């Protein structure tokens, strides 16, 4: 809920399991933190919860100040369940040093995991978005929350996910999967990819672009595509004037972007802007604009029932013919066939 002039607040509960894989928590949450700083329309209100007030992380660092699992969740909230490791690195030790191995109680940790599973089963209701990172999907599966959903997890745990969620549509070779209110990722760095996708959906693509650039993450990957996301193609440079131009295009892909208009944003000449694009972005200005428009068009094709003429218009193309010409140059599958394929998943 939000009031006029105030950001829309999304409560985010990060469930911290025993033996927490630190990057599964730090990576996605850092994306949300940066998104809060990069825009003012949406605020992600982050809380850390779990069955224990303190746990040891995968790298031996103690995580403290963890709040108890809440008895109820607010409407439209997010719950992030991070992954865990079999045996964490003991505090103060070096990787692979058996002499400094810190014993931990497997039975105690298993009891904490059972508490998380019970809490998820009792608390997650329609309206709450559940996001899992790595082996967090197994806890969600044990709670019965992935049955019938398309989902994924770390490739080494896919057989476990199939066993624990027999009616789920478990996908392999996927970085992350979004199916309604269930969002699952393969783990570790893919939690960052998933969260950038969430930020783009909730706060807009410019916010996700800004967060990724600030974190020097220049490869934002789509869940079902290991290729570079079109929204971040050509952004692995550090030229601030070009980033201003790309931010403007990303915010309004359908606008009539002439080289002259974009050059004024970069405070340079059209000829120099064209040179800079080819040097730093690796493509022409026109090609970059068209690729961004096609990225928007792909979302309209797979996420709406608009006919191709309306898709072309909303994506900024002068005609359906021009749209199809550019589309066919960048995609192997025609737009109508891509729409049909996406609905069969």
What distinguishing features does this structure have?
Arc Repressor Mutant, subunit A; Rossmann fold; alpha/beta; about 350 residues
Task: Give structural notes.
- This protein has 345 residues and is of the alpha/beta class.
- The chain folds into 2 domains: 8-207, Rossmann fold, CATH 3.40.50; 233-343, Homeodomain-like (Arc Repressor Mutant, subunit A, Orthogonal Bundle), CATH 1.10.10.
- 44% of the residues lie in helices and 15% in strands.
- The protein is built from 13 helices and 13 strands.
- It has helices at 22-38, 106-123, 136-142, 158-164, 190-203, 205-214, 240-251, 259-266, 270-281, 285-303, 308-315, 320-330, 335-343; strands at 8-15, 42-50, 54-56, 62-64, 67-68, 78-81, 129-133, 150-151, 169-170, 176-179, 182-185, 221-222, 225-228.
- The strands form 4 sheets. The protein has a 7-stranded mixed beta sheet with strand order 5-2-1-6-7-11-10, with helices on both faces.
- A hairpin with a 5-residue loop joins strand 3 (54-56) and strand 4.
- Helix 8 (259-266) crosses helix 9 (270-281) and helix 10 (285-303) crosses helix 11.
- The longest helix is centred in the C-terminal third of the chain and has 19 residues, at 285-303.
